Amino acid sequence: MSLIVQKYGGSSVSDAAGILRVARRVVETQNAGHEVVVVVSAMGDTTDELLDLSAQVSEHPPARELDMLMTAGERISMALLAMAISSHGGVAQSFTGSQAGMITDGIHGKARIIDVDPHRVRTCLDKGKVAIVAGFQGMSRTTHEITTMGRGGSDTTAVALAAALNADVCEIYTDVDGVYTADPRVVPTAQKISKISSEEMLEMAASGAKILHLRCVEYARRFGLPIHVRSSFSDHEGTWVLPSPDDKIKISEGVALEQPIISGVAHDRSEAKVTVVGVPDIPGKAAMIFGIIAGAHTNIDMIVQNISTKGTAKTDISFTLPMVEGEDALAALRAQQAEVGFEDLIYDDKIGKLSLIGAGMRSNPGVSHRFFQALSDAGVNIDLISTSEIRISVVTRADRLDAAVRAVHQAFGLDGEDEATVYGGTGR
Amino acid sequence: MSLIVQKYGGSSVSDAAGILRVARRVVETQNAGHEVVVVVSAMGDTTDELLDLSAQVSEHPPARELDMLMTAGERISMALLAMAISSHGGVAQSFTGSQAGMITDGIHGKARIIDVDPHRVRTCLDKGKVAIVAGFQGMSRTTHEITTMGRGGSDTTAVALAAALNADVCEIYTDVDGVYTADPRVVPTAQKISKISSEEMLEMAASGAKILHLRCVEYARRFGLPIHVRSSFSDHEGTWVLPSPDDKIKISEGVALEQPIISGVAHDRSEAKVTVVGVPDIPGKAAMIFGIIAGAHTNIDMIVQNISTKGTAKTDISFTLPMVEGEDALAALRAQQAEVGFEDLIYDDKIGKLSLIGAGMRSNPGVSHRFFQALSDAGVNIDLISTSEIRISVVTRADRLDAAVRAVHQAFGLDGEDEATVYGGTGR
């Protein structure tokens, strides 16, 4: 008997038919002899509908009340799923985040899990029931207020619960068959990856692959938990995201890691580039600039400092950041322009980021050559470059991004013969 | 400074505009120097939409999960109201039933309040904030499960909170201006009652007046709490429901009780009549029959036992009960027909009940004469009669009920000159 945590996203439970389909799958899993915990997101459009209502009554809704509002979404889907499971002959009990012991910090809207106390869930399983847990939500340890975890929160809930319950696997059900070598909407010949290391998946997620959220992969990697990303619309095997190959893989013999050179190509259209022009080239200025940015609670991605132009003793510093945080960062910098002594700020949100990920590239010196050659052959100009041991990322013009992704995908022989199937798209 | 508990029903918060209108009223009340606690129902159609979803996934949804589902409704409206209050410059905090300390028994779907521990609400008021509390829901003392209170639950929440907080008044906002001398949809010339005793209001509610639920009036009467029933669509004074005239009325000098002879005419179309035919006329048989009915958890209203027909030593017992509980009651009786020894059961759901209520009638012997004369002049046949000190009720044919109500209303001089305004209609 295994303990399996299954997470279903909003597109899998978008209507009654979807909920009944998920319920059947859950009951089948239990009937196959497993203990099952289900983490569920809000139904399809619920999140958007609730956000729309909130926008109608308030321009800047208080964060606490927004969390109270949004958590109604999973409350609805989890109760309906419990009912649907009983229609399929199973017995299930639903739990809110706080009932399931998801203890978070007190930051409304993007709370982080600081502890998981799943004793009510464990008791529920011990009674032979299916436990259904609301994703995305928890309770603050200090204030006892209801919190939500922001994007990727439901995946993170599932992985955190799986780790706390010492589950054998966390299955993330979504509207695609698994993780692809590139976004199938951009590269129709992208192929499903059958196994990928947590490390690579982390780079994929950080580079814009939306299928799994960074936090959830980080969590799974830390606890050595295998994730199986698959579609709730089919019974096909999906993608196994496996912890470090040094760890024992518990699941089955077929999933031992064999490292391909390249796992895939990820891209990201959500970033903007800020260039701080004419920064005095003296020690401490970069630290000052990034201190200001950090004070505005902005997450910076890539950073490039150009070589100081001879004689001027001035330099330019460029960095990328989420487009939605652009205004705050600019305002914070402008407020301290005199103190830092820079000349100008240039903001560019017409950029795209492309990343090539593969654990094999650290021992393959030819990878970066082939990468830049492919971009050059496709006539794509490169704006910024950054690398890690298993990733190369470049920033290009936004309107050249798709061509760049396709060129790189083809250059590394990732194209398959069939076109991938694409369904909807989800948020949480 | 007074402490005012305001309860808004679903029709008052049916959309964003309604929520903003309620928010403005709440902020105005606070700005006038009062402490304000708001109890809110689910938005307009939410309850029906959630019930519809549940019906799509389950024929007999587990009661625990149904409560979990339904409580999402108030969660949405209370969070939106808190946001809307902040848009109007106020500061509010929303509380679920369990956060507000509404402790109930464990009967899902019709839980009863057994304790109220409003310390979080009190703290919120002490900080100068408006407290918003989800109506209709609580938490079971023993199981810590989320419960709902069934019909009238939001009104009862408001009154129970008002009593626990020692509030000065509980304002029940609805879609009509107050309590009328009859249902304005049946009697267009019905007049708004400006003051009515809790005792009479209790009889009105028990007799089918839907504006206030029986449980809430009972609660207010027990705690000596004045209720002000009024419309959220206007600023008019509504109807004051005042505890016993012996109690000190705290509100204002204008509301001291002066007892009119008759308060109003109530009617009810939701009951059915069961006649148990040919019951052996020996002691203990009636107790046996009503024991069976009680075992089926059915609430009986009127009971009439006909005089035993000479020689047969048999009698007929008739009673009325909610139509929705009719089948269960009949099944329970049939299952023990042999033991009780009755001959037959007659079920009649084409009946209507009319009640005349007035604390003044106990000292006015002419009331019942005028009452029956009016019915007779209108050609209405009477099926059953029952009375209390301040009420006369009769059962008539359903298709004669409206005519009967109008005749009695006119006979007691209750008709006004203007027609009443009627808006929508709510549930919880």
UniProtKB/TrEMBL annotation, chains A, B:
EC id: 2.7.2.4
Signal recorded as keyword: no
Pathway linked to the protein: Amino-acid biosynthesis; L-methionine biosynthesis via de novo pathway; L-homoserine from L-aspartate: step 1/3; Amino-acid biosynthesis; L-threonine biosynthesis; L-threonine from L-aspartate: step 1/5; Amino-acid biosynthesis; L-lysine biosynthesis via DAP pathway; (S)-tetrahydrodipicolinate from L-aspartate: step 1/4
Superkingdom of this protein's organism: Bacteria
SUPFAM superfamilies documented for this protein: ACT-like (SSF55021), Carbamate kinase-like (SSF53633)
Catalytic reactions of this protein: L-aspartate + ATP = 4-phospho-L-aspartate + ADP
Gene Ontology MF: a single term: aspartate kinase activity
Domain (ACT) ranges: 274-359
Keywords recorded for this protein, A-Z: Amino-acid biosynthesis, ATP-binding, Diaminopimelate biosynthesis, Kinase, Lysine biosynthesis, Nucleotide-binding, Transferase
Family according to the record: Belongs to the aspartokinase family.
Role description: Catalyzes the phosphorylation of the beta-carboxyl group of aspartic acid with ATP to yield 4-phospho-L-aspartate, which is involved in the branched biosynthetic pathway leading to the biosynthesis of amino acids lysine, threonine, isoleucine and methionine.
Protein name as catalogued: Aspartokinase
Source species: Arthrobacter silviterrae
